[in-house]
Design a protein that fits this description.
By secondary structure, this protein is an alpha+beta fold. Helix content is 33%, strand content 15%. Helix 2 (157-172) crosses helix 3 (184-198). The termini are far apart.
Amino acid sequence: MNRDRSPQDERGIALVLTLIFSILLYILVAELVVSGRMLRHTGENDARLARMQNQMEYTLSEVCDSLLSDMAGQAAGGDGSSPGGVPGLGNAPGGSAPGSSGDGSGDSQPDPSSSCDSSRDSWAQPQSRAEGDLTTYYMVEPENAKFNLLAIWSPDKQFADAARDQLVRLIDSLREDSDYDINAGDAEQIVKQIDDWAHRPGTDSIPKPLHKSDDDKVPDLSLPSHLDELLMVPSITEDLFFDKVIDGKIYRGLESVITVWTSLQMDPGDPDKNARNAAAAASSGQTPPASGNQPAGNSNSKSGGANAGGSNPPDPNAPPPQPVGEGIRININFASRPVLRSLMPAGRMPDSVIDAIIKWRNEEDPDEKAKADQAQSQSPTQASDFGDLRLGDDVKKRFFSTVSDLEKVKEFSDLPDPELKAEFEKFCTTKSDVFSIHLATIYKRNEETRSYVMRRARSVVVRRDNGDSGTLYPIIRLEERHGLRLSVPDIQDDHPDLLGTYSQMDSFAQEDRAWNPFLLEFYLPKAQRDQFYIRNR
């Protein structure tokens, strides 16, 4: 028997439908809210990354101006050096020969620090530039303080063999006396793998851009144009390539001691075109125009140093081209211990001499200390303070104004063999012309929990003295970086005590240093960092 349904019987269905509709409406609204928030956060992040990029650009411009100003100061103060030769290199301009004058004395050179690149330069220490809620930290690294990897593929076999031995010693001493030490056997294996990788067969079938360094006599040789290519070598991992911070100590990576960007030559351009221009100019009685303004090529470039920037084509009967400029020499004011140790075997140049050189350049200059003490006594508030700011003591360390200043190091001066000392000096310089500018922009989300967003980048530039104000040519304009790169002190304690350093700073300077990603403190655990971070004291 059918019974007619009354509206009262449908109340349950209406309630269920209403509940289902409410749930669907809630899901739709929640999805819209989440999507809106996601789009908003994405837009904010994109805008923040763009602002970081812009601030890096501005900071890079300021650092480049500083490097050019430093060159202008050197030009005003004189270079205090004379050209010298390196075995297997030919004569390279700008180096200091053993026994060359330039001790910083005389009326023409009142300030020896203006004649070289050293820790006294304004760009030599990591610094920061703040703008709003973003802070960009930067560190300038002279590439001339590193070993040039391209030397092991020099056309001069004797020089290339000596460079391979240096590279083995460099890797062997990179992390010595640590749990990450690389023994001599492993170092030789790494160097062999690097060489095999550059000579890998079958590369002629792989499309690749033409390089000035391509040699028709060695068709299977592919020289690296970027140091990151070493990461393709099986035995070179990121742990070995980049710096590491473990238990409050910095362990250098290969990136901090090896380079491929020094010893650059000016590109002479198309030899055929240059020859035609020279012939046309000779027939008309005019001076042949100079060609080529861009830095290109490398230590094995087909264009020899004598032709760099000139208009004559390369001489096919000329000897093999060799690295020129400051690059193949090592700047002894910045070179790390592994690099200095690699120049000569320990049997010829004792470890005690290498350690003494590093210790000497890290000691406070007694003359500058006397000047600071005198200034402190005359005006106590101006010696190390800037108004209400206390940025810490600026200790002026010793430096080598010329290579001949190595004689000021007692252990080096006491070496009995003058030829040995002269040979070591020929590998050295006190100037730099290629620089890596490391940048890191930080947005602090929460200072207490140290939550932040950081973007890293690097630019590599070559500085040329064109007789006027100097010019910087970009080798790498601005590339994103993700690996760790730090300012490594020459002498590291097992347990650094920075309380004395921080006690001389105000809270602003303390916070700026503690947030600098190029310094050790940034990577210390909170408990260890709080031992010397005394902002509230």
